[in-house]
Amino acid sequence: MAQFWDIFNNAAFRAVEITAALESTEYIPRLLGGMGEALFPTVRSRFRNVMVTKRTLTQSMIPVSPIGAPPVELEVGPMEARPFGTRRLAKGSTVTADELSGILVAPTFQAVQNVQTELAQRGQRIRDDHELTEEHMRLGAVQGIVTDADGITVLDNWYTNWGVTQAAYVDLDLNNANANPRIALDTMTSGIWAQSEGGWIDGQTVIHALAGDTFFTKLVTHPMVERLWLNWQAAAELRGEITDDFQFGGVVFHRWRGTPGGAFAIPANEARSFPVGANDAFQRIMGPGEFEPYVNAPGPEIIGLIIPDRDRQSWVRYEAYKYPLYICLKPLMLRRMRITGT
Asked: Who is most buried in 45, 196, 226, 252, counting CB within 10 A?
C-alpha cells in the first residue's frame, strides 16, 4: 500500500499541477459558451462577494463654443451598485486502491502515468459536468432568470434585481400564412435598440434567438420565409456545413434542442432573444477559490484538488471547483417570442 501513497506524493499530483492539467483538458463546446467573451465578458475577482455596477449611458451633441469658454460638462448617467455573491460549483470522484490494483504493481514512473490517465478521464467527465452547469446558467442569464440545477430554485432574477418589468411576448403569428414575420421582428429589434441604455453598438451588436423545435420549423416553412431558408441551406451545403442557424429579419435564429433528458428546455412554440456584442449587457464573474494558493487571488477558471486517505491509505479523492456568477445587466434588451394566431 505504501506504493499507492508514494504515487500521490509525486509532484504531478500537487494542486497547482492538477489544476493546470484540468484546465488543459478538452471539453465539448455548447452554443452559448461558444459565443465566448462577445456574450459574457469574464471578470476574475479576488472576492466571492462583489458589487455589480449598472450604469445608464447617454449620448449628447456638443455645441460649438468660443475660444476660452469652459467646456461643456459630461453628464454622467445614473449608476446602480448592488452586492451579489459568486456561486460555488463542486464535484468529485474517489479512486480506490482496489480500482488501481493493476496499476500499483507497475514501476513508479509507469504507475504515475497510468494514474494520471485515469484521473484525466474522470477529470474530463467532471469538466463536462461543470461546463453543462455553466451552460445552464448562461441559458438562464440570457432569459433574465438564473436557476439552480433543478431548474426550479431561482438563484438570480435580474428583472427584480434591477427593478424592471419583463417585456411582453412578441407574437410572430407564424400560423398565419398571410402574416409578415419580418414586420414583428423589426418592431422587436427597434424596441431592443431603444431600451439598450447605450449598450447597442452599431455594426457589432447582433440579436440572437434560441428557438424551440416547433417555432423554428414554423418559421423556416412560413411562406414569407421558406425561400430564404432554402437558399440559406443550399449555401451552407456548398460550404460543406450542416446548420440549424438562420438569419432573418435582423435576428440570428438557432434551433435549440436542449438535452435529451428534457433539461435546458425552451417551450417548443417559443423563442428567446438576446444581444451579442452589446456594451455591458452580460457579465461573467469568476470568484476566488477557498483553498491555498487561491484565496484572495483572481478567480481561476477551475480548481482541481487531490485529497489522499491519510488514515488508511486506501483511496484518493479527486475534486474540481468553480465559482461563477452570470449577470444580466440589461434585462430590458431580452425578448420572448411565441406562436399564436390561426
From this structure: 196
> Considering only CA atoms, which of 53, 79, 36 is closest in space to residue 327?
53
What local confidence, expressed as pLDDT, does residue 128 receive? 86
- Amino acid letter, residue 237: E
Domain residues for the domain of 326 are: 2-56+84-338
Closest CA relative to residue 188, chosen from 332, 39, 340: 332
Specify the amino acid at residue 329. Answer: L
Count CA within 13 A, CB hemisphere, residue 103: 22
Which one, of 214, 211, 274, lies nearest residue 245 by Cα?
211
How does pLDDT run across 16-29, given as a tens digit for each residue? 555 655 555 554 54
Residue 61 is assigned to a structural domain of this protein: no
CB atoms within 10 A of CB 183: 13
- Give per-residue pLDDT as tens, 144-158: 999 998 888 999 999
Alpha carbon distances (Å) from 309 to 72, 96, 318: 68, 10, 11
Please write the tens of the pLDDT for every residue from 136-195.
999 999 999 999 988 889 999 999 999 999 999 999 889 999 999 999 999 999 999 999
Total count of domains within the chain = 1
* 72 DSSP assignment: P
What is the CA angle 305-309-310, rounded to 5? 110
Determine, yes or no, domain membership for 120. Answer: yes
